[in-house]
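new request in #modeling-help
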Amino acid sequence: MGLDPVIHAPVRLQIVALLAAAEEAEFGFVRDQVEVSDSVLSKHASALEAAGYVDIRKGYVGKRPRTWLKLSAQGRQAYRAHVAALQAIVARSGLRLTPE
Amino acid sequence: MGLDPVIHAPVRLQIVALLAAAEEAEFGFVRDQVEVSDSVLSKHASALEAAGYVDIRKGYVGKRPRTWLKLSAQGRQAYRAHVAALQAIVARSGLRLTPE
DNA sequence: AAAGTACTTTCCTTCTTGGAAAGTGAAACC
DNA sequence: GGTTTCACTTTCCAAGAAGGAAAGTACTTT
């Protein structure tokens, strides 16, 4: 039916949509935007990485560790396909998922 | 975050979107469109009814029993809100969930 | 009486999630 | 040097969701 089970969970949809908008996002930024705990984001990020949808990069800001997340090409494509599937479902109802 | 957990599950989203398009739909029609078994549709329909989102009407066609499902006003509103929430999330990514 | 129709319910097993808390490794503080 | 803190990660656990299979229900049809 086209919906991607890896992306469909509410938290993951939010993470992926957020990442789709940016090149890369910091772990802490995503955590705050999506409003989840460290552990929950960490788990979802790992799951998305395992699926090949997200690349996790570790580095430093000054001397402090920092983690960045970004959508892989595969993740971007999967997200687009997922949104298209949502669109197809919602379009059946006559709604358009478009603002205003 | 606005997504309605009752509606969000893939099968339920499909059911609700389908019902949103019509006045009423027959059980068998919905089952075939959504491609689930009798038991799965029956359970989801009951869950949606318990949430107050769907009205289940039983009647006959000739002498054979038949069940119709329809979105309640509350269900329609919840669906609209859910779609708006999806829209809000997806819009962040720059996508629009609009066809073409 | 037996079989079929149109679902409904129960049973059971699996998957997913989330919160809480402990763990890790490096850096900063006293 | 020992203790905290920071930035996550992992483990533990308990709860809820979901689906398939199969049995059940209430009639009707053959």
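bot summary: Chain A has five helices and three strands.
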